[in-house]
Amino acid sequence: MSTDRYQSPLSERYASKEMQYIFSPDMKFRTWRKLWIALAETEKELGLNITQEQIDELKAHAEDINYEVAQAREKEVRHDVMSHVYAYGMQCPKAKGIIHLGATSCYVGDNTDIIVMTKALRLVKKKLVNVIKELADFADKYKAQPTLAFTHFQPAQPTSVGKRAALWMQEFCLDLEDLDHVLSNMKLLGSKGTTGTQASFLELFDGNQEVIDQIDPMIAQKMGFQECYPVSGQTYSRKVDTRAANVLAGIAASAHKMSNDIRLLQHLKEVEEPFEKGQIGSSAMAYKRNPMRSERIASLSRYVMIDALNPAITSATQWFERTLDDSANKRISIPEAFLAVDGILDLCLNVVDGLVVYPKVIEKRLMSELPFMATENIMMDAVKAGGDRQELHERIRTLSMEAGKNVKVEGKENNLLELIAADPAFNMTLEELRKTMEPARYIGRSKEQVEAFLSKVIAPVLEENKDLLGVKAEIYV
Predict the structure, then answer these.
(1) 277 pLDDT more than 60
(2) Is 282 among the catalytic positions?
(3) Active site residue: 24, 61, 105, 152, which one?
């Protein structure tokens, strides 16, 4: 580890080795060589004077990149693509003259960006599907566990622990839909020349339009894609980067929402993220169990959501067929968004897999508020017994205010049931009232909603993506 220069925390602390490799120089330059081979093969198959011996030579050196030659050459010519063309040619003297034939720098640069983003989106999808699976297991386990719900972070009608997890899950499912849409529409730039007109190929193929029409589809097929974008300037539309970044920002927003809820629940001591045996929560307060994983999710998620502005602004400000003010920005904003989301999803996997639920604490808080929630049922029972609905409503309102004052001003327990039992207007004993305090009566269809959601929505998603399941996250710090 180098300690005398800045190193990105995304690599050192948060992102997986798999995602780091996808955005590595080695991945980039190996892909460049595969693209040069695909171009040469296509041109040979379409009739140019390129030999199989030249193709074989290119393939023989596709992986053993002579980086030192390329780096030395770039210091002279200040052009990364031409430096690697030169270095490849040094290893392939017979094929030297046909490397990059008819192409512009964006042929390798932009096609590689699309290939890299596609691989990265697939890794994101893999981890996202596993987060959904972990949440599904958690929701199913706690689908009938009553808990106090909150609106405005004020006590509201009860829900279930599993139903709340289903809400988190649904957010991630929406993200998966968006991700699948973007993935299914990823296309290569192809090889369209300096301004996207394929003028160089008109020259190479003596103006044969039918032959030129075959170039992009053949390159796409060789590189594992269905097609290329039908028109372009020198680059693919930077709107593609925007679409990918927006998907990542959506995942980050969903993760942020879940992590916020978990942090609040940990404050309430109802649900707690994993806490390792030797973990230290605070350097000063040894008893503390800070939700540091959930806090990290929120922190990284904010970065990704803001970072999505970068490709949007870049896309909006491109001039005509291209400008180079996208390049430096893309080198930072796109990889870092993917690296951050990779770290976020690993944290989500770790947190959800190890979530601890404390039913006794949940029940105690719920029971302290349940008398207020039960007042409508109590009032209906009293009406059935012959009471006047309007009079009873006013009596319950008054008694609720008194019980609330006892709790908030006097610091006493909620005594609403005792107050109602002492009021002859209700004609109900304290024992009868306490029988109405069964939490499961007040969670509505939470259990049934979770079951339906898991069977009708989640099960098909997991079945469709079953080959992606089984990921376990490694948290580095």
Answers:
(1) no
(2) yes
(3) 152
